[in-house]
Here is the input.
Amino acid sequence: MKFGGTSMAGTERIRRVARIVKRQQDAGHEVAVVVSAMAGETDRLVNFCREANPLYDPAEYDVVVASGEQVTSGLLAIALQALGAQARSWLGWQLPIRTVEAHAKARVETIDADALIAEMQKGVIAVIPGFQGVSEAGRITTLGRGGSDTSAVAVAAAVKADRCDIYTDVDGVYTTDPRIVAKARKLRHVTYEEMLELASVGAKVLQTRSVGLAMKEGVRVQVLSSFIDDDAPAADTIPGTMIVSDEELEGMDMERQLITGIAHDKNEAKITLTRVPDKPGAVANIFGPLAEAAINVDMIIQNVGRDKGETDVTFTVPAADLARSLDLLEAAKSEIGFNRIIPDTNVAKISVVGVGMKSHAGVAATMFKALADRGVNIVAISTSEIKVSVLIEEDYTELAVRVLHTAYGLDAVEA
Ligand code: ADP
Ligand code: ASP
Ligand code: MG
Here is the structure.
């Protein structure tokens, strides 16, 4: 069972979580619980690091931001004990949850679950702080924002759980963020592949890595609400959204939708380099240093060459990596040979995702037309087999998501 930040925000909510957990144990399950920091806490800690130094040491950042989950794991264990349950916390370095060295975006390598399993079999509820691990060198690492989902799936795989229930502040995965589009529809099932793509383009209900890991390890994942009454249906009846394989979905004999959902991402920043030499090797000089710093470049456009053999190159990076990116590019200025560097954080990426588009033409055209009709300008475009993404001005995010939700016929019909 995993509980997110909103579910863990304050003692009252932690008590509610404890009751939900205890109910599962009372129903005869052995349970491990992964928790997030209280809502807003990780942001607060990240800001401290930024204030201290915008180009902070990622290893020390991890020491700071991992602390939020230490607090909630201890508190949940206390709340469970208050209900008469046996419970204890295991911090990432205590289990341990081993990760690669990549600070602030580490990947789980192994989890030593022997002690955990032994205690669970004795009836102890294991409480594990999400988001954190320990590197080979013995230093604290974190798994990237939203990483508690990945911790939960990793723990579920390590203890060979029957299911990994992700309890959050919505009751499942919707066709788009239900906080933006009131007519979003809840999906009973979504395939790993679709969920992976939705998550990777910003549907933050599950961290992308958690979906990839669940797919690889064959972990059954359900997304459901923690804001439920004591007499709500048990998680075993699958009241939320189940992530399923393609074969499983086919067996259900449902009509496949062309488009599964629409996602938005305001956490990207756009960088334009002007007057880059239009010659072989120029782009390699730009993206080499970013790759070495493990900065993920997403959308890339190289504009039509100007005269004098020069061109402008525009691309996006995670907003959290913007300061570092600008620093690296400035340092490589003479090697790359650009004139100006123009950063822009006032952008959002809107994506349409659906396996159905593999065999359907016209998905992108519908998107461009719907946005054009509402006067939304497109700055950049990228596509994959099952996704079309556009970059737009951030102020138009909500409008764009709503318009596309309607354009693809996803709006819930009113009862
Ligand atoms: P937690 O703290 O539990 O991890 P998150 O805030 O990370 O919760 O994720 C849940 C949020 O994801 C919801 O409150 C919702 O606003 C947002 N969200 C974005 N896209 C979707 C979607 N397609 N379906 C459901 N929720 C979504
Ligand atoms: N607390 C971390 C974050 O806010 C991890 C998580 O909640 O999943 O990103
Ligand atoms: Mg989350």
Notes: Residues 11-26 form the longest helix (16 residues). The chain has two domains: 2-251, 255-415.
